[in-house]
Amino acid sequence: MTRQIILGMHLGNGYGALPGAWRAPGVDPTNYVSFDAKVRHGQAAERGKFHFLFLPDGPSLVADIENEPPHFNLDVMLTLAAVARETDRIGLIATGSTTFNAPYNLARQFKALDLMSHGRAGWNAVTSSGEDVAANYGARLPSSAERYGRAHETIQVVQALWGSWGREAWVHDQATGAFANADEIAPINLRGQFVGSRGPLYIPPSEQGQPVIVHAGGSPNGHELAGRFANAVIGAAFSIEDARAQRTAFRDAAERAGRDPDEIKYFPGLMTTIASDRRTALDRRIALTQRTFPQRAAYLMQILGLRTEAIRLDEPLSAAQLAAARPSPQDPRSAHALKIAREGWSLTDVLAHGVIDYHPVIVGPAIEAADHMQAWFEAGAADGFWISPDIYDDGIDAFVDGVVPILQERGLFHQDYAGSTLRDHLGAPAQYGVDPRAMR
Amino acid sequence: MTRQIILGMHLGNGYGALPGAWRAPGVDPTNYVSFDAKVRHGQAAERGKFHFLFLPDGPSLVADIENEPPHFNLDVMLTLAAVARETDRIGLIATGSTTFNAPYNLARQFKALDLMSHGRAGWNAVTSSGEDVAANYGARLPSSAERYGRAHETIQVVQALWGSWGREAWVHDQATGAFANADEIAPINLRGQFVGSRGPLYIPPSEQGQPVIVHAGGSPNGHELAGRFANAVIGAAFSIEDARAQRTAFRDAAERAGRDPDEIKYFPGLMTTIASDRRTALDRRIALTQRTFPQRAAYLMQILGLRTEAIRLDEPLSAAQLAAARPSPQDPRSAHALKIAREGWSLTDVLAHGVIDYHPVIVGPAIEAADHMQAWFEAGAADGFWISPDIYDDGIDAFVDGVVPILQERGLFHQDYAGSTLRDHLGAPAQYGVDPRAMR
Ligand SMILES: Cc1cc2nc3c(=O)[nH]c(=O)nc-3n(C[C@H](O)[C@H](O)[C@H](O)COP(=O)(O)O)c2cc1C
Ligand SMILES: Cc1cc2nc3c(=O)[nH]c(=O)nc-3n(C[C@H](O)[C@H](O)[C@H](O)COP(=O)(O)O)c2cc1C
């Protein structure tokens, strides 16, 4: 079978990736608390045969709350519980902190989601990296070494708990009265420097055995953690070179951990505003983000090495400015930003291209998104992508109806789900019991 | 308005309260992992206008797993998420440990459930009391004083986080672009001896403001905790006198905490096997529990002060045994057990009456359950009951179709839900912001 692109859909706060999405015409401003909305968005992605939903999380209120919604779901597990009940095939990946959760609590809830979804659950194991998060737990943020030390132990304990029921442990034979085979259910008795658990868990295997481990990040400690445990990495990269280097770093880390590098899939992000033409798409993004442009223009000038006085948002940079511009090596987006500025767009339009957004941004026809993904995929920079539409309500549909068919025609994307579990979708084997490699 | 009985439905492992429920004819042995089953059971209770579902929890595997299922849900929060989506009115109470959860995690997940269910969530705050549970968290069980000290702080922090968004904080006005009113969102900055949090939470009020606090238990420390914080208590009592004493203890504790004692509702448990006549009901219970009878018979003899040799399960106690019997004051069930034995039933039938079950047991026609509840309710021994049917699949329906109409005819039970939130159902006022009484 030829290798194909794997796609994940970002599900955040119910509105979309752009700060003004909650105010857009046709968007219900109560989507933040609406599980109907989240289910609808999950179903829209499933209609497009997306392999998984990705729900980031950070237990803190960090938004400019007077003007913008929080970034995340009310609760990622409850959202996925609702989506699990009302979808059939799409994978369900939620973020859970290894620093601020007990392993037993992570193990039981993700495994319950896995049973509930018939084998579609994944755990994005992150260490949490903000003092604001730590403060909500009445703590200071531990050092990176400590956080990653605890993360390694936590994932080991969680996986051991998941594996504490063997594949055939759950007999439930009404005729003989055998509910379970106790020989296949064992305590784990793990005790590390940071966490421990006796076990066993009380939950039998799911259709995929146990949930998939995912990691999001890109620090050297993150490479190490993902290399050892993860089947998928949620990444962020602004160029093919950057993405390829990241993907290679994760693959190398997997090899160092004694694994086949193909076991770890790397997914950089992509933000999308899909419209019939560039102008329409730019205008849509302007409406959704304009409020932030004065501040962003100043930042843009700065990373181009230009003075920030007298910014004229409605005009292109002058020939003198373009000549003087020096893209900052501190910001990987600056070279691309200058390239767009040189095309002669007004400063507003340059910003509307998303040149200083969190990920590469497609602002235009569906084919541009398809071309972008094909180029990155074929250059070995990605195994797939996680997509952040500008507005979920119609942005998912625009992608599904516009981009997906192009990828399918090119043979780059599956026509339908081949399997039923998240492990099937990622090409990861089912996991029963404890993977001995993970216990070293 | 006259006082009426409040009813809760116990939702445990998907099968029912009796150990053999999973093997009963017509029961799907996979109900343990089936969220369809839990939803069906929740809907059945809602059809009967039950005020709430009660999901106990204890993060441990304690069952005789070769023969019997675990007692609890795979995950109480995910179960209630599914039920919330597929019911409209019934209250949703899940158990969450104050000892083995961070307050911020409890706060976010219960409040998210509250939004998801449009104001129907309740948190049964318990301290957890088994070394088996503690071991799953890599810990020893803290002393009672420590557990309850942490419980008081945890509930305070959770309630403060729930109240960290004022009633009108969430503006979400698309026209003006005001997402929230930051003046009504405040950090909580609580730091106790055991737990702390900075806050604020990132979740606006629900239709009932915030979830209801429930407690289950009956130790003096539990009275104190419930008296201060709880609107409802899940109890266990074997006689009217016992229940009345417990109810009074909780009401007194509420008064000591400066509250109106009517703010705290006391619900003893009731197990039911409803059938057209006693014999049919006994046979049903025999089929579901017989396996345990040899062991239980020995215990029964013991609490009656009788020798345990040569137990004849199929015969009544002899005249000599009945004459020699001395109910043990150590077990509150022994007097009632002797009364049933004196009626001349075989030892098997005596046990099938549930004389040594966890709660009083109704084994017979619906009217007996109605009479029991009326007597307790009118004697001031209960504000309502939580019901544990033998088998959920048909036992909930038997209660709803048999017992509920009798209670309604007698004017003891509502004809329909009067309000839409759990606070409405319990007669508790909506709670916005922080209740200053709770912060003392
Ligand atoms: C694409 C991407 C997504 C991330 N998602 C989350 C998230 O949902 N929650 C979270 O706490 N951290 C998230 N992170 C942060 C990382 O887990 C990690 O903390 C960060 O990269 C800093 O690295 P370090 O903590 O290893 O030093 C994400 C990082 C990236 C690059
Ligand atoms: C009816 C009833 C239900 C209970 N439900 C739970 C439960 O679901 N989870 C739990 O951990 N403890 C539960 N408990 C135990 C109590 O929370 C408490 O730990 C127990 O009564 C022992 O008291 P103490 O811990 O205050 O000494 C329950 C107790 C009673 C009486």
Automatic annotation (TrEMBL), chains A, B:
Which is an annotated GO molecular function term of this record? oxidoreductase activity, acting on paired donors, with incorporation or reduction of molecular oxygen
**Which UniProt keyword terms apply here?**
Flavoprotein, FMN, Monooxygenase, Oxidoreductase
Signal peptide feature range: none
Q: Which InterPro entries match?
A: Diverse_substr_monoxygenases (IPR051260), Luciferase-like_dom (IPR011251), Luciferase-like_sf (IPR036661), NTA_MOA (IPR016215)
- Binding sites annotated in the UniProt record for FMN: D57, T95, Y148, S219
The residues covered by the Luciferase-like domain are: 28-381
Q: Name one Pfam family in it.
A: Bac_luciferase
**PANTHER family xref list:** ALKANESULFONATE MONOOXYGENASE-RELATED, C2H2 FINGER DOMAIN TRANSCRIPTION FACTOR (EUROFUNG)-RELATED
Regarding protein family, the annotation reads: Belongs to the NtaA/SnaA/DszA monooxygenase family.
Put simply, this protein is called Nitrilotriacetate monooxygenase
